[in-house]
Amino acid sequence: MNFSWFGNWFHKPCRIEASELNLEIEQLEDFIDILEKQIIAQETEKERYYNNKYPKKDINYRGRPILDSSSNALIDVRNFIDEFDFNIKKIGLSIVQDNDDETALEGLEWMIKNFKYVGDKETAGMNEFWQFSYESLQTKKGDCEDGAILLHNILLAAGIPYWKLRLSAGWVQTGNKKGGHAYLTYYSEENDKWVILDWCYWPNLKAIIDRPDYKDEPKYLDIWFSWNKKFCYTKGLNEHASELLA
């Protein structure tokens, strides 16, 4: 279809007949439709598969209080993802390796060496408080989700595609009990598996190829919800997760 009309549209006389305007609107809609199809076509088969494998649900985090208010903010969990912060970008560029697997492992090593686990009671005076990455980067300390979110953003800034990274929250085995935990999972395209990159709970620097699929990790149990830059996923929030989410 020829869209040369689009470049010449601004040179037309101010008076436009209604029928002509309707025609141009239809042509513009066709043009937008083609662009959308081209963008979709650029998605890889794996990207489409994993973006649509699990049920999607918009999820709000409500653990941060609003200033001068007795209520807490409702924050779309995707707002915690920001790879465009130039301070995060510097770290991301510094860890880039020859391929995504090596870059992901380099990012995990940076987190283990540079970030200290400190509970929310000490950092925020609250039982639960998610930090934004700029806060975590300033203090170099935080709990499980703070470090997982920061690692996620660093790897995005290093150029790893968003769909290969997913933040997860769920149960892990702690002795004879279960405990809540947040961590990052990464899809290795070369090995066709999702692996766990955890900076604080059983941290290790095993090569990606030597890591088991996340479903085969014995200490990581049911996932409550997960999310990436574009989508949130859950099969249903349990009572524990619902205390902080909406």
Description:
This protein has 246 residues and is of the alpha+beta class. Strand 8 (220-227) and strand 9 form a beta hairpin. The protein is globular and about 70 Å long. It contains 9 helices and 9 strands. Mean pLDDT is 87; it is low at 1-12. It has a single domain (55-242), classed as Roll (C8orf32 fold), CATH 3.10.620. The protein has helices at 4-8, 18-42, 45-51, 86-94, 100-114, 120-123, 133-139, 144-157, 239-242, and strands at residues 60-61, 75-76, 116-117, 141-142, 165-174, 177-188, 193-197, 220-227, 232-233. The relative contact order is 0.14. Helix content is 37%, strand content 18%. Helix 4 crosses helix 8 (144-157) and helix 7 (133-139) crosses helix 8. The strands form 3 sheets. The protein has a 5-stranded antiparallel beta sheet with strand order 7-6-5-8-9, covered by helices on one side.
Number of helices: 9
Task: Determine the CATH topology.
Answer: C8orf32 fold
Structural class: alpha+beta
The percentage of residues in β strands lies in 15-25%
Helix content: 25-40%
Largest sheet: 5 strands, antiparallel
The poorly predicted ranges are 1-12
Strand runs, count:
9
Shape: globular
Tally of distinct domains? 1
Encode the helix/strand succession as letters: HHHEEHHEHHEHEEEEEH
The largest beta-sheet arranges its strands as 7-6-5-8-9
User: Regarding CATH, which class?
Assistant: Alpha Beta
